[in-house]
Amino acid sequence: MTTNAVSTSARKADSIKLFSLATPQMRAFHLAWLAFFACFFAWFACAPLMPVIKGEFGLTPAQIANINIAAVAITILVRMVIGPMCDRFGPRKAHTALLIFGAIPVFGVAAAQSYEGFLFFRTLIGAIGASFVVTQYHTSVMFGPRVVGTANAATAGWGNAGGGVTQATMPLILAAILMLGVSETMGWRLALIVPGVLMIVVGVLYWNFTQDCPQGNYAELRAAGIEIEGGKKGGWDSFKLAAANYRVWLLFVTYAACFGVELFIHNVAATYYVDKFGLSLKQAGLAAGSFGLLALFARALGGFVSDKMALRSSLNGRVTLLFVLMLGEGAGLIWFAHSESVAMAIVAMLSFGLCVHMACGATYALTPFVDKRALGGVTGIIGAGGNVGAVAAGFLMKGVGDTQHTLSILGFFVVLSAVCAIAARFSAATNAEHALAPATA
Question: Boundaries of each Major facilitator superfamily (MFS) profile domain copy (predicted)?
């Protein structure tokens, strides 16, 4: 087949046809966000049930802090590993394996009989948070520079909405189970089986209906001698190349300050509303869930605005947007920490939450341009930064011993992290290399 004979579907897409599944690009788009949604739902399914689980095992505040840290700690390592593995084996195999095998600890935590057992399986569940890296990788290889920021942000945002949905629905699932006459001790365990089953179903769909890139699957393309985006082999080489780029580490810090805060809020929000404002479990779940549901549009908005900034100016327009969003996030977080009424707290949470989600989208609108030779390594390292931020926040809360004070300190550090965003500016030569020509009809 000659180059001229390559079909339109074998090229990166320059538009997002939201209601179509006709092309491999759009099938990857929809199944990528659905896979991340399923993983995110399972990842934080325990959080809104913690007031019940705390009573079940008689957990102390220190033990709860350990559980929250465990939920995100292992993801640091898995995200760094799975990015280069996407370069090596392809996102289809990586995502399917993560979904199927990741369901095992989800079932395991439902069967835990002690604090130690619960902590063990909660730690293993953290591995499925690496789904985000595969999602971003898959859309980055499927979509062109005009829309890649929007594609990355939309799939991540809709996947992240799983965090909001789990906050709002897990208490309702538990309530429905209890209405059937099941005891509370058995009820929360049965409720946690639901996200595990969802992961297995989505894993089967991912394997059957996606491919690695517009041209096909990596294994078949390599066997046929077809070059894959720069000829990268992935694995350790991809990681080393990405780790040598200083922009990767600057964005690692900014992602720690936005997605890390998002993860921290998912873990503590429901309990915070119960303890500080005296809300019921259902009320607290709905309040906390509204933060996660912002991801339905806010993260996509961050990527969309970043794409528009790049069209109007350059890659540095994307950088400036990220800088502004980080400042807004830090200021809003401090406001949230000092809110003394539940109404004001929710308004403040939604305000800084908008900046949080948009900043996450703006970060991953930048990653495809940092180093195309090591897309998996770049995506994985920066993604791991989010979990480093969440773990650091968990240790901070454990040391401070007070959620409100912890939130205030975090807001200050987020403002400081904005400096890393602006320091990631690109040179004139790099801007020229990635300049977009006017769209043609």
Answer: 28-435
For each of the domains in the chain, give its residue range(s) and CATH number, in order of start.
24-214+232-433 (1.20.1250.20)
Taking phi first (over 0 means left), then psi (-120 to 50 degrees means alpha), and beta for anything else, what does residue 17 get?
A: beta
Higher-confidence position of 71 and 409: 409
As a whole number, the mean pLDDT across the chain is: 90
Spatial contact of 364 and 345, defined as CB atoms under 8 Å apart? no
Report CA torsion sign: 321, 323, 326, 327: negative
**SS3 per-residue string spanning the chain:** CCHHHCCHHHCCECCCCCCCCCCHHHHHHHHHHHHHHHHHHHHCCCHHHHHHHHHHHCCCHHHHHHHHHHHHHHHHHHHHHHHHHHHHHCHHHHHHHHHHHHHHHHHHHHCCCCHHHHHHHHHHHHHHHHHHHHHHHHHHHHECCCCHHHHHHHHHHHHHHHHHHHHHHHHHHHHHHHHCCCCHHHHHHHHHHHHHHHHHHHHHHHHHHCCCECCECHHHHHHCCCCCHHHCCCCHHHHHHHHCCHHHHHHHHHHHHHHHHHHHHHHHHHHHHHHHHCCCHHHHHHHHHHHHHHHHCHHHHHHHHHHHHHHHCCHHHHHHHHHHHHHHHHHHHHHHHCCCCHHHHHHHHHHHHHHHHHHHHHHHHHHHHCCHHHHHHHHHHHHHHHHHHHHHHHHHHHHHCCHHHHHHHHHHHHHHHHHHHHHCCCCHHHHHHCCCCCCCC
Structure tokens of 400? Answer: 């401070």
Task: Report yes or no: 315 and 308 within 8 Å, Cβ to Cβ.
Answer: no
62 pLDDT more than 90: no
Could you tell me the pTM of the whole model?
Answer: 0.84
d(CA 145, CA 51) in angstroms, rounded, equals: 45
pLDDT digit string (tens) for 329-382?
999 999 999 999 999 999 999 999 999 999 999 999 999 999 888 889 999 999
Angstrom distances, CA of residue 38 to CA of 135, 290, 422:
12, 18, 34
Cα–Cα distance for residue pair 168/45, rounded to 1 Å: 10
Asked if 306 contacts 369 with a C-beta cutoff of 8 angstroms, the reply is no
Tokens of 427: 């040179």
Please give the pLDDT value at position 164. 79
H or E segment and range at residue 147: none
Inform me whether the pLDDT recorded for 153 exceeds 80. Answer: yes
